[in-house]
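Case study: Beta-lactamase.
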Amino acid sequence: MKIFPFLAIVILFLSCSDGKKSATNKKNESIITKQVVKPEFQFIIDSCNVEGSVLIYDLNKDIYYSNNFERAKMGHLPASTFKIANSIIALETGIVKNDSTLLKWDGKKRWMKKWEQDLILRDAFHFSCVPCYQDIARSIGVERMNAYLAKMKYGSMKVDTSNLDMFWLEGDSRINQFQQIDFLKSFYQSKLPISERTEKIMKRMFVADHTDQYKLSEKTGLSNTNSIYNGWYVGYIEFKSDTYFFATNIEPQKEFDFDKFVAKRKEITLKALKQMGFMK
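Here is what the predicted structure looks like once written out:
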């Protein structure tokens, strides 16, 4: 008669184990369903004669879409997409007061003609004025820069006194497409350790296009390492019913037209969003 309690314990243990396995399997299934491969994105990229990956995140459904998830995990220099974080840190530290703060031109020749003027922060951001943001980085300083980058969990930046005004353009700093979206999602959902005022100013400044159907916040980036260009297009697009985050990273084929290449960063992303039915 004593054997029955023992058997009951064994049966109970086995049923609990099966329950745990079932729960684990369901958890694994949910993780798998959060990443959907989109061959259509690869077709868009191939048709533009570039190499790269598109990563799109559906906030409501909690699903990632990409043509190449492995490549989306590869780190690259953030280039001018770092102006998002740089602007936030500048606002938090008081280096700039708001998006109308005037950044004076020093009169020296610059790579782009539109940079050769006094610019308010908002215009410097959208014109992607590198010298403007180099001045900002130098004013922030190494210690504060590293502290904020760590707090905001922004990729893997390598910042010291020797590269304070260049670390996002050259060197060993890296951020991947998932990290770009994680950062933007935290910012969008008010989860970054920054003030409400900074967040409000940055969200206003970030907007590039606003229509009756959507609001688009975006930033491009471009780096050149050993004569190999790498292009970014990151941001999010808000509709009444949902928000979609995107991080596209591309590199040109051996022979390419520079002006066409820089335009393809956004072109590829918008085509991918339209292919998904998120945009008309």
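For the exam, be able to explain this: The CA atoms of residues 105 and 117 lie 5 Å apart.
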